[in-house]
Predict the 3D structure of the following.
Amino acid sequence: MSSNRSTVGFVSLGCPKALVDSERILSQLKLDGYDIVGSYEDAELVVVNTCGFIDSAKEESLQAIGEAIAENGKVIVTGCMGKGEDAQRIRTEHPKVLSVTGPAAYEEVVSAVHEYVPAPPPKDAFTDLIPTSSVRLTPRHYAYLKISEGCNHRCSFCIIPSMRGDLVSRPIGDVMDEAEGLVRSGVRELLVISQDTSAYGVDLKYRTGFWQGRPLSTRMESLCQALGELGVWVRLHYVYPYPHVDKVIPLMAEGKILPYLDIPFQHASHAVLKRMRRPAATEKVLQRIEHWRSQCPDLTLRSTFIVGFPGESDAEFEELLDFLDEAQLDRVGCFTYSPVAGATANDLENPVPEALKQERYERFMERQQKISAARLQNRVGQEIEVLVDQVDGQGAIGRSSADAPEIDGRVHMPGATDLVPGDWVRGVVSAADEYDLWID
């Protein structure tokens, strides 16, 4: 390692929103002249971006901090565990930590790095004229596009508003400029993320912004229309089922954006949803799903659910299973309820025993696996488009429009060794299981 360079290591934990935070911090450090390295030994300092959503994520974060201290010694901590009681816990369990900051604290993190590892000397004038590209932690062919920070909801099981604050939407011109730059750099898929994508622009009262000299309203529909002009896959995550979501379904049917909605329903029982402080109109949700599919038959619906929420009765859990049968969702994740320090749900009566939570989780997943397998089996014989993610000597693996990276299924292409990541290919589905497809 050259003596006139300053080196930083980075550990990024948690959701895609935290990943974008990591990319912004790393991009600024790179712009300031630091080298980003991949090992503890080569780093003069390590930054750990933590996750504090549930207890297991906190434990993983604390372990990562401990490992970084043991392997390197100089550690700065940021992210969702960096606020309130969790920040104090970090300092108590790991007193050698140099600095602790909360989520999206870009300037504070960079300042702390400068304090403990001085920035390298300026490069020569000619080199300084060469623009420094942003750091991305995803493969070259896809990227996350964060459109807002924070959340206005007050779900009883969640502490995100206390960690990240209320909704703050990015100006639509800035979002589109970033999206356009990512596409120019070779990105083939943009994954739109936020805490609540369908609330985009509410805090700005849907103010009109400008992109390429044209006016655009700061709202989800306008953003989707503009993103649909970039000629790449556009995938929507974390969308609440507000009525105005109906307006983006025609864009999906027209092929402007991917026919894919990630909607965190969380439960189906009216009583449980009320205790969660979530929208509780299950019948309207089912009607809306039916309406969406009538407009866009290829629509893929993904969701996440919580079982074992405090007070969840056998009858309420059965309501959830009945909802799965009726909704026929394509992609589903499930978690057993985990109390999070600071969440108001901790004060609810009748906690569900851990053994019963696990039993309900297994019953839920068994029910959904049958649904997923049947829906994927119906795709056998269809021609689909696939975005290639990886290639080796055995063939290629990619994803269809129904598959988000890391969380959904994959498409296997045995023998397709002449492809490269980022290629779009078409093929006929020859086989399917509960999660994955195979094409000829």
Notes: The longest strand covers residues 383-392. DSSP finds 13 helices and 20 strands in the chain. The CA atoms of residues 141 and 215 lie 29 Å apart.
